[in-house]
Amino acid sequence: MTANALLIVLVAAFLHAFWNYLAKKSRHKIAFIWWFILFAVILYFPMFLYFCVGIQISAAGWACVVATGILHTFYFFFVGSSYERGDLSVVYPLARGFGPFWVPILAVVILREQLSLPGITGIAFVVVGIYVIHLKSFSFKTLFEPFTAIRSAASIWALLTGCTIAAYSLVDKVGVKSVHPAVYIYFIFLIPLIFLTPYVLIKERKALKPEWQINKWPIMVVGFLVVFTYLLVLFAMQTSNVSYVVAVREVSIVFSSFFGTMWLGEGYRQPRLIGACLIAVGVAFIGLSR
């Protein structure tokens, strides 16, 4: 992996954690998410037009587009629901770690692939990291608390988010081979916007105007970053081994725990930072096993 590619992926990881930090800081999470998706769809429409001219999408390509659009709709809803109920330093590592945790397992079941030693090692690290992140301290007294804490509403929503990440990762692996990545990415936001709009207008209508008035600039920053960070990763993948890129970008899990515990003042700093590091290492092993 070249130094330039490494720097690009690290920047992308930082920015991905940063936009999640901004989402967590928002007042009405679902409304905030709807606004930044709308802004992203408007902002990147010229890019979509430029790359979609003259291309033809196969039936398999359209199937992947629709599937990933639906899955991302659930993903954005689950992310918002997670941040409504839980800390960034718990929700983000759970969601980002649990997704890759399922990918190799689903690959064995669906694609008949075999688990490698790095993959098994990575899964073990993720499991231990999820356990540690729910600890309040490293005393014997709190040793069994994670078994209760992981059943909290925030953790359940975060784990559901991780399941959607695993599902759309498998779909996207096929989809980007059939559809130009820039066009494919645009549909990832356009379709959720279409599906989320009725819900937002009915359930979150009163929150839309004040959320925009209070968080207009963060909304626009996130709307730019959600697409830009993925484009950075795609660019890095063109010049480096995909497995290395996937592994390195998971340092965002550590960034998110740092933002949550240091910037947002969330509690249990030591277990959460250590748990996030374990999850990040595990996901890196899983990425390198592909």
Could you walk me through the main structural features you see in this protein, from its secondary elements to its overall organization?
With 290 residues, the protein is mainly α. The protein has one domain. It has 13 helices and no strands. It has helices spanning 3-25, 29-43, 45-52, 59-85, 88-110, 117-133, 146-149, 153-178, 181-203, 205-239, 242-249, 252-263, 269-288. Helix 5 packs across helix 8 (153-178), helix 5 runs antiparallel to helix 12 and helix 9 (181-203) packs antiparallel against helix 10 (205-239). The radius of gyration is 19 Å and the shape is globular. The model has no long low-confidence stretch (mean pLDDT 85).
Can I get a quick summary?
The protein contains 13 helices and no strands. The chain has 290 residues and is mostly helical. It has one domain.
Helix content: over 70%
Describe the global form: globular
Number of domains: 1
What's the average pLDDT? 85
Order of helices and strands: HHHHHHHHHHHHH
Radius of gyration: 19 Å
Low confidence ranges: none
Q: What is the beta-strand fraction?
A: under 5%
> Number of helical segments?
13
Structural class: mainly alpha
What's the total number of strands? 0
Record the SSE blueprint.
Blueprint: H1 3-25, H2 29-43, H3 45-52, H4 59-85, H5 88-110, H6 117-133, H7 146-149, H8 153-178, H9 181-203, H10 205-239, H11 242-249, H12 252-263, H13 269-288
